[in-house]
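Batch manifest, entry 17 of 40.
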Amino acid sequence: MQLDNIRIVAKREYLQRIRSKGFWIGTVIFPLFAVAMTVLPSLLMVRSRTTQTIVVLDDTGRVAAQLNTPAAEKPKDPLEQRGQMRMAKVELIPEVVQKDRKAQEDALNRRVVDKEIDAWVRITPGALTGDPVEYHGRSTSNFMTQDVLEDRLTEAVRRVRLADAGYDPDKVGELSADVDLRTIRVSKEGSRAEGGAGGFLFAYILFFMLFLSLLIWGQQVMNGVLEEKGSRAVEVIISTVKPFQLMMGK
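Output type: structure tokens
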């Protein structure tokens, strides 16, 4: 009898909720919207990836030559080396520094405005001692491009500094190369190589689905209880079934 009462309440709740617009909005549209908000930005960033053309003015005469070397183009972060974080591609074009500094900078600014190039940078001698490198572009919010450019500038300046100190930059790079960690999962069935990102992503998706379920269905149950209490229908229901059976059915 107890299971029959729970089944009757559950059937009534299901038929009542499935006919409402709020059910479909909360159960289907809202999760799709949440997924779109988390996935679409990454997809759009990948699909819209373009090559940023940046002109380099090197007052030192030494850094620009190091910018397009394989060592400077190689990402420092292991995740970036696997192609998981690198979303921007930068093409650096060295340009001969002219005597009329202002005229050259004005010409470069016009090329930026006319969309011939995306930006230009000037490397002063102070960059070798820690001064910042100026970035002039149509947009300063493209942080991914700036991160790539900053990494390559850092590596190029580092190589020049090492050479000035009497060290071979290539040899130092080999000796200070990163160490990759290969993860192996140990179980009763044996050991096997396995990455941790897949397990983390699976657990995150399960947690997100559980959170949505509690949020959506908790709201639905609360609305049902409030409606029945406001219409005094709950008094009739409680006279037939026990509170535990009512809540289990809901």
